[in-house]
């Protein structure tokens, strides 16, 4: 009986080995040429811009979260700012919470969208209303269920609004909780942040997250707001950045004190639906961005597939194991450095599994997100 290795010719083994080497080189380019931009980046000291800022929070049924987190936003160490909460058709006691806080915090303002059963809308309406209500050109966005990590959040994010900078990308993480799903969600968020921070530093900004994002009101209206993707439930953050960010108008802020945190979904089904909605926007990214974002997972998949295949060949097995070990070390180093920069803990050992698992999860999300259009749903 012939072995598995005997089923293939020497030329076929060589072709697979070449594919493995090419995929390894692509991985090397991403990790050492792109991701290293972020893990070794040293921000230049500059005089902060302390101009007036409007913080916009869109909330739907977030009464409890607003009670807990809104005071932390209203007591930031910043002189000139306002906080606008857009109460979007809430059916809980959000309005009562806001009315009570307005009496205590003079910088707080609210605007309310009443439910109209004849008209269903998504978050982009609320964001647009909040932007129109803002008195200032500099805008910062945070969700109603998000907690700023310190009273320096506003100052650090707003400090980048100087010169040509009109967009500021921040980090919006999740609370660390027990469980495998929590670790995967935090790992996924970490890797996404590594990508958009790294590409921004490579002068190719392509997205940001609405949990911690800043841009100018003038830029919003100059770019016609969300008009080109209003039909999608998602995209009030990443698609806006994708359309309006340039190599000269985008800055990043990632210091610990500037982070925001929120509670992740507690079930895989709810998280998967949320991610599926987010994935629905990727088809509208600029062609260059789609190519750059697809090369890394494609090369990673080819590397794993060729690695398993070549393990059956006695001649190439030692060299293949060496390449695998080298990539493992490279992955561990980049992941650990990113964890330190973004203050994420207890993910390194899981990252070796998640590196492979994420390929299948993200492929499933990509396929399912194309199956039918997302409806207007907030989260």
At a glance:
This protein is α/β, with parallel strands linked by helices and 379 residues long. 50% of the residues lie in helices and 12% in strands.
Could you name the key traits of this structure?
single chain, 379 residues, alpha/beta, Spore Coat Polysaccharide Biosynthesis Protein SpsA, Chain A, 2 domains, seven-stranded mixed sheet, 10 strands, 50% helix, 12% strand
Give a description of the structure.
With 379 residues, this protein is α/β, with parallel strands linked by helices. The protein has two domains: 9-40 and 288-369, no CATH class; 53-279, Spore Coat Polysaccharide Biosynthesis Protein SpsA, Chain A (Alpha-Beta Complex). 50% of the residues lie in helices and 12% in strands. The strands form two sheets. The chain has a seven-stranded mixed sheet with strand order 3-2-1-4-8-6-9, sandwiched between helices. It has a three-stranded mixed sheet with strand order 5-10-7. The longest helix is centred in the first third of the chain and has 30 residues, at 10-39. It starts with 9 loop residues before the first helix and ends in a 10-residue tail after the last helix.
